[in-house]
Specification:
Blueprint (H helix, E strand, L loop, with lengths): L2 E2 H4 L5 E11 L5 E5 L1 E2 L13 E3 L2 E9 L2 E6 L9 E6 L1 H25 L3 E6 L4 E5 L6 H16 L5 E5 L1 H4 L14 E6 L3 E4 L14 E9 L2 E8 L1 H21 L6 H36 L2 E2 L5 E8 L3 H14 L3 E9 L2 E8 L7 H9 L5 E5 L2 E7 L4 H12 L1
Parallel strand pairs: 1-4, 17-18
Antiparallel strand pairs: 2-3, 2-8, 3-7, 5-6, 5-8, 6-7, 9-10, 10-15, 11-12, 12-13, 14-15, 16-17, 18-19, 19-21, 20-21
Helix pairs in contact: 2-3, 6-7
């Protein structure tokens, strides 16, 4: 069994050890088993440590079937004698801050609201806990966050003790352990007692601060996002940078920024509506012009068609509907080439004795495409294997 130095002292940065074994896993990745290690393996919601072994980067650490595998970037040529391990301390201490902060915040929610934490994840930028409730209020979040930061400010000791389930029964555990032997209890006196295998600082003061960022409903519970320690300052820096940029863009101070943004949104909505109305008027003018150019196509119909380059299909749909509303004997076909694709819209008024759905296969097969619709309106697309003008010519022949 590998001696777990990270449980003896979470502040160890370097250590000496020997390699007991080096081999490859089923995917061909090299790993070593050490006599003793300060590398914490992934587990309990906490990511593993990273660092080096004799200068070779350690990329992953996992505990598999009781053995702690140190995955290395490349095979170690010499596995004899003593080697030096070095932990990436910034990563380790960040994880210590975040994990201890999670204990504190979960205990704070339990004390202020009676909400149980059912899972925890320590991500690269934020942490999440899942609370066993369907919703929480802003007031509840503030209460828990305030208590958590009070506990941090009191610099309470964070203790760890190994014990049996019988011994653990003497403590007010926040959650019952899943094992009966070798239970590692993490204790913040008179506040939190919780079984945990992660790494933690000696004092709550080293957590620095806790800030809740957001929460959302996830399945039947609430998933809450937060940060601790140095990550609070990183979040503050990022948000302050964004606020400075928005202050310049909106030309408003921070306390007036929401009002300025809302006014801008309302103005944009008004302009979009005006633009939409103007565009619709232009389409009406275009429809009238096309109606005047209609060609007779029989006793009860007139043929209107046009080819376009880079024309949105939505505009062609609107244009076709405007025409058949105004001219009930119209049969309308528009084709647009957009990049390497042809898009087509066909419509007819009430008068022509014609089923567009029946002739659609003969049109779309010509361009290796597909489409569909109803008796009086079809649309679809295909490959630009011929020009829009040639496709309209083909459609005109089909109609005749």
């Amino acid at each position: 069994m590998t001696r777990k130095l990270y449980y003896e002292d979470a502040y160890i940065k370097t250590f000496e050890t020997v390699i007991n074994e080096q081999r490859q896993d089923n995917d061909g990745c090299w790993f070593v088993l050490l006599d003793q290690t300060a590398f914490y393996p992934t587990g309990g919601g906490q990511p593993c440590d990273e660092g080096t072994l004799n200068g070779v980067p350690v990329t992953n650490v996992e505990e598999v079937n009781g053995e702690i595998r140190h995955y290395i970037e490349s095979k170690m040529e010499d596995t004899t004698g003593s080697i030096k391990g070095e932990i990436s301390w910034n990563r380790r201490f960040d994880h210590m801050q975040q994990h201890a902060g999670q204990h504190i915040l979960s205990a704070a929610f339990a004390e202020t609201c009676g909400y149980e934490t059912i899972s925890f994840h320590l991500g690269k930028e934020i942490l999440t806990i899942d609370l066993a409730v369907k919703k929480i209020t802003e007031e509840e979040a503030v209460k828990a966050e305030t208590l958590a930061n009070i506990i941090i400010g009191e610099a309470r000791q964070i203790q760890t003790k190994w014990m049996t389930a019988h011994e653990a029964a003497d403590y007010p555990l926040r959650k019952q352990p899943s094992v009966s032997e070798d239970i590692r209890l993490v204790i913040i006196p008179d506040f939190d007692y919780n079984g945990c295998g992660g790494t933690h600082p000696h004092s709550t003061s080293e957590v620095g601060a806790i800030k809740i960022l957001d929460w959302e409903k996830h399945k039947s519970h609430i998933r809450l996002q937060f940060v601790c320690g140095r990550r609070v300052l990183e979040q503050l820096h990022q948000k302050n940078k964004v606020i400075k940029e928005l202050t310049a863009i909106l030309q408003a101070p921070q306390d007036k920024m929401a009002d300025a943004a809302q006014q801008l949104i309302e103005r944009m909505k008004f302009q979009d509506k005006q633009l939409e109305e103007t565009n619709h008027q232009l389409l009406e003018y275009e429809a009238d012009a096309l109606i005047k150019e209609a060609k007779p196509a029989g006793e009860d119909s007139a043929f209107i068609s046009k080819a376009y380059q880079n024309r949105p299909i939505k505009e062609l749909q609107t244009l076709a509907r405007l025409i058949i509303t105004e001219k009930e004997d119209a049969v309308v076909f528009f084709v647009a080439q957009n990049a390497t694709k042809l898009q087509l819209v066909g419509a007819k008024g009430k008068m022509p004795d014609l089923n567009l759905k029946e002739i659609a296969p003969g049109i779309f097969s010509k361009i290796d495409g597909k489409g569909g619709g109803k008796e009086d309106f079809i649309q679809g697309g295909g490959e630009a294997v011929l020009s829009p003008e040639d496709l309209i010519g083909h459609i005109e022949k089909l109609l005749l």
